[in-house]
Specification:
Structural class: alpha+beta
Shape: globular
Strand content: 25-35%
Largest sheet: 8 strands, antiparallel
Number of strands: 45
Number of helices: 11
Distance between the termini: 24 Å
Radius of gyration: 32 Å
C-alpha cells in the first residue's frame, strides 16, 4: 500500500504544516515518489518543485557564440511534474530576462531571438506575464514598454540594463526545461536569466467526489483493465451501515469492494480459482460521517486491503492456478446488479493510478450529486485556538479572524518586538461608530442588546498572551476605562509578575503576586487570566492553574472599558502610582498572541482587518515570533520525523534490553555524570555570554521592499532580489534533506 500521500493537499488534511514531503502522484503506479515543498497557506496548498539553474544566470558578454542554451534539471522527472500539473487547479513559473543590448522577442513579425522549451519539448515564443500565441512580454500587454514600438522592454536594444519578467501560467506548457538565448553576438551584448520553481495549487483529483443519495443509484465507467495488477484507493463517508462501493464482473471472474457492516470493509475477487475475500474489521464504527480511506491491491503474488491506519490484511495467491482477472462488464460505482448500493460520499477514486471523474459523471446521473459537503466534521479538529472551520466545496479552511493566531490551522502566533518607549493602544470603540454597537460586538461574546454605551460593564474577561523580556519593571498590558476601573499585568522591579485589578469598592487595587518566579530571563512566558464575577483563575506557563477571589467589598463589574495598552500606558486622567513609576522607560521585548475577550490587538495592528482602525501605534512595530510560546512552535524537521514512521521502530541502542552487566551499568552512570557536568558548564557559559551582551541586542528585519504590493512573500522576495530565493532554497535543502 502507498506509504506516501498522493499530494500536498492530502498532507494538509492530516494537519501537517509547511515543509518538505514525499508525494506519490500516481499511488503505486510507475512514477515513484518525489520530494516537494508543500506550502500550506490560509486558503490554498502550494506544491513547489525546484531546479538547479541559479537565479540571474549570466549569458554572453564574453564569447561571441550565436545561441546560448540554459538547461534546467529538476528534482523530479518530467512525468512526475506532469502528474502534478495535470491534477492541479493552477500552476505558475516565474521567468525573467535582464538585458543590456540583447533583444528578447524583437518584432511580432520576425522570429524571436530567445525562446523557452516546455513540456513535451515544445518551443514557446511568449514570455512571463503573457500567454500562448501572444508573442509579447508583460509590458506589451500592459502597453508600458520602454519603447512603445516594441512589445518587450529588452527589444528597445538599450545600452542600459532593462528587464522583462512575469509568471508563465499556462500549465499545459510547464515546466520550463530550457531557455535558449539568441541575441548575444554583438560586442557589449549581455543578458541574465532567472527561472523560478514550478508552483502548483490545488488538487482536482483529491476532491473529485460524488454523493450517492439512494441505495439504487450508481455511476458506470468503462471496464476496469486490471488483469495482472489492480490498485484501487478512495475515501468514503457515510452514516449507512452497509452498501457496495464498486463492482466489475466477468464471465465468472469479478472484483468488488463493499461496506459489509458498520465496522467491516470487504475486498473480494475471483480470478478463476474460486472467490477470495479479505475483510478489515475496525474497532470503531466506520459509518460515523467522517472520511475513511480504503486501499485495495491485487497482483499475481498477493492481495491486500487497508482501511485508514488499521493493520494491513494480506492474502497470498495460490502457487498454481489462474492469475489473470478477466472482466467484461462496465465498472459500477455504487449499486450494481440489484444489490444495495453505497449511501454517502465517495471521493478521489483511483484505479491503477488514474482518478475517475466521479464529479462529471454525477452531473448527468439521477440519484447521484457531484461533490460533497460536511468536510468540517472530519477536519474541523485541525482548526486550533478557537479557529472556526469553514466549509468549502472542495475541502475546508480555518477562519482565524476571532483569534490572536493565523496560518492555515490558526497555530501561528502573531507577535511583535517592542523597542523601548514604543506602545500600542487599541480603542474599544472606533471614531464614527456608536460605542454601544461596537463594544457589545467585540467585548461581549453574549451581546445583550439592552446595554447602552456608558452603562457597558464587563462581568467577565478572558486574557491570554505570551511575552519575553530581560528588563524590569514594566507594564505588559493595561486596560483603561471611562471610570477609575482598570486592569493591568505588570513586571515588578524584582522581576516577578503581578496582576492588578481595580474595580471599585476597595481602598487599594487587588493584586495577585507571583513572587517565586523570575519573568525577566529572556524566555517566552505565557499568561492566561480568566475572571468570572469574583473568581479569577490564573495560569502561568505550564504550571497548574491557580484560583483567586476578589475581596468581598470589591465591585465585580469592570465599568465602561475604554482602551487596551501594550508596552506603556498613555492615558489622560489620574493613573495608579505604581503603574506611573513602572511606565518609564517602557517595555522592551516581545509580546505575542495577545487576546482580550474577542479582541486581538497585535493581530489587528499587524494584519489589515476591519479592526485595524482601532489601533494606534507609537514607534515602529516589527513583527517577530520571539515571544511565541515554545509549545506552539512546530517541530523543525520532517526529514528526521516523517509522519508515517513509528518512533518505536527507530534504532535505539539498548531499546527494551536491560543492561545486564554491572560494568556496563557503572560506565553508563559515570558517562551520565560527566555529561551532566559538561552540560552544566555549557549552560553557565551561555548564561554569562548572554548576560554580557544582553544590552547590545537589537532586532532588524530586512523586509523585502516589494512586500506591500506583492501578493505573497515569495513574490515580494522575487520582486526585490532574485538571488534571494535561491539562497533560501539552498538553506532549506541543507536543513531538511
Amino acid at each position: 500500500s502507498a506509504i506516501y500521500e498522493l499530494s500536498c493537499e492530502a498532507y494538509k488534511h492530516l494537519g501537517k504544516t509547511s515543509n518538505y514531503y514525499w508525494i506519490d502522484p500516481d499511488g503505486s503506479g510507475t512514477l515513484g515518489p518525489l520530494k516537494v515543498y508543500c506550502n500550506m497557506t490560509e486558503d490554498k496548498v502550494w506544491t513547489t518543485v525546484y531546479h538547479d539553474l541559479q537565479m540571474q544566470t549570466s549569458v554572453g558578454g564574453s564569447s561571441l557564440e550565436k545561441l546560448s542554451v540554459l538547461q534546467l534539471n529538476y528534482s523530479a522527472t518530467m512525468d512526475q511534474i506532469s502528474a502534478i500539473t495535470s491534477s492541479a487547479e493552477y500552476c505558475e513559473q516565474f521567468i525573467s530576462y535582464s538585458c543590456k543590448m540583447s533583444r528578447l522577442l524583437n518584432t511580432p513579425e520576425g522570429n524571436p531571438y530567445t525562446w523557452w522549451v516546455g513540456k513535451a519539448n515544445e518551443k514557446h515564443y511568449y514570455w512571463g506575464g503573457s500567454g500562448p500565441g501572444i508573442q509579447k512580454c508583460a509590458c506589451g500587454i500592459e502597453r508600458n514598454c520602454t519603447d512603445p514600438k516594441y512589445y518587450c522592454n529588452c527589444d528597445a536594444d538599450y545600452k542600459q540594463w532593462r528587464k522583462d519578467a512575469g509568471m508563465l501560467t499556462y500549465k499545459e506548457h510547464l515546466p520550463v526545461s530550457q531557455v535558449v538565448v539568441g541575441d548575444l553576438d554583438r560586442p557589449g551584448s549581455e543578458a541574465k536569466v532567472s527561472v523560478g520553481p514550478v508552483r502548483c495549487q490545488g488538487d482536482r483529483n483529491y476532491w473529485n467526489a460524488a454523493s450517492f443519495v439512494t441505495s439504487s443509484s450508481y455511476l458506470h465507467f468503462s471496464t476496469f483493465q486490471g488483469e495482472t495488477s489492480a490498485d484501487i484507493s478512495f475515501y468514503f463517508k457515510t452514516s449507512a451501515s452497509d452498501g457496495v462501493f464498486l463492482e466489475n464482473l466477468g464471465n465468472t471472474d469479478f472484483i468488488k469492494l463493499e461496506l459489509k457492516s458498520a465496522t467491516e470493509v470487504s475486498f473480494s475477487f475471483d480470478v478463476g480459482n474460486g472467490p477470495v475475500e479479505i475483510v478489515v474489521r475496525s474497532p470503531n464504527p466506520l459509518n460515523d460521517d467522517q472520511w475513511h480511506r480504503v486501499n485495495a491491491e491485487r497482483n499475481v503474488k498477493q492481495a491486500s486491503l487497508q482501511v485508514d491506519q488499521l493493520p494491513l490484511e494480506v492474502r497470498k495467491a495460490p502457487t498454481e492456478g489462474h492469475t489473470r482477472l478477466e472482466l467484461y462488464s462496465q465498472l459500477y460505482v455504487g449499486a450494481a446488479g440489484g444489490q444495495r448500493g453505497f449511501l454517502g460520499c465517495i471521493r478521489s477514486l483511483r484505479m491503477n493510478g488514474v482518478t475517475l471523474d466521479l464529479e462529471e459523471r454525477a452531473k448527468v446521473t439521477p440519484g447521484v450529486k457531484p461533490g460533497c459537503s460536511g468536510h468540517c466534521t472530519s477536519y474541523g479538529m485541525y482548526c486550533a485556538n478557537g479557529g472556526k472551520c469553514v466549509e468549502k466545496y472542495n475541502g475546508y479552511s480555518c477562519d482565524c479572524s476571532k483569534t490572536a493566531y493565523d496560518g492555515p490551522f490558526c497555530i501561528k502566533d502573531v507577535g511583535a518586538f517592542f523597542e523601548e518607549g514604543m506602545w500600542l493602544r487599541y480603542n474599544f470603540h472606533s471614531p464614527g461608530t456608536s460605542m454601544k454597537d461596537l463594544v457589545s460586538r467585540t467585548l461581549l461574546s453574549s451581546a445583550d442588546p439592552e446595554i447602552t454605551a456608558p452603562d457597558l460593564n464587563l462581568n467577565k474577561e478572558e486574557l491570554s498572551f505570551s511575552f519575553s523580556t530581560t528588563k524590569s519593571p514594566c507594564v505588559l498590558l493595561y486596560v483603561s476605562s471611562y471610570t477609575p476601573d482598570f486592569m493591568a499585568v505588570l513586571v515588578k522591579p524584582t522581576g516577578s509578575l503581578q496582576i492588578r485589578y481595580n474595580l471599585g469598592g476597595t481602598k487599594e487595587p487587588y493584586n495577585i503576586d507571583i513572587d517565586h518566579r523570575n519573568m525577566v530571563n529572556g524566555q517566552p512566558h505565557t499568561v492566561n487570566v480568566t475572571r468570572n464575577g469574583r473568581d479569577i483563575i490564573l495560569q502561568l506557563d505550564h504550571y497548574p492553574p491557580t484560583s483567586y477571589s476578589l475581596p468581598a467589598t470589591s465591585d465585580i463589574q469592570f465599568n465602561s472599558p475604554k482602551a487596551l495598552f501594550l508596552g506603556k500606558v498613555i492615558e489622560i486622567g489620574k493613573i495608579d502610582q505604581d503603574i506611573y513609576k513602572y511606565n518609564t522607560p517602557g517595555f522592551t521585548g516581545c509580546l505575542s498572541r495577545v487576546q482580550f475577550n474577542q479582541i486581538a490587538p497585535l493581530k489587528a495592528a499587524l494584519r489589515p482587518t476591519n479592526a485595524s482602525s482601532h489601533v494606534h501605534i507609537q514607534g515602529e512595530l516589527v513583527e517577530s515570533n520571539c515571544g511565541a510560546s515554545p509549545l506552539t512552535i512546530p517541530p523543525m524537521s520532517a526529514a528526521t520525523d516523517p509522519w508515517h514512521l513509528d518512533s518505536a521502530s527507530a534504532d535505539f541502542p539498548y531499546n527494551g534490553q536491560a543492561i545486564g552487566d554491572g560494568v556496563n551499568r557503572n560506565s553508563a552512570i559515570i558517562g551520565g555524570v560527566i555529561a551532566v557536568v559538561i552540560f552544566t558548564i555549557l549552560c553557565t557559559l551561555v548564561f554569562l555570554i548572554r548576560y554580557m551582551f544582553r544590552h547590545k541586542g537589537t532586532y532588524h528585519t530586512n523586509e523585502a521592499k516589494g512586500a506591500e504590493s506583492a501578493e505573497s512573500a515569495d513574490a515580494a522576495i522575487m520582486n526585490n532580489d532574485p538571488n534571494f530565493t535561491e539562497t533560501i532554497d539552498e538553506s532549506k535543502k541543507e536543513w531538511l534533506i
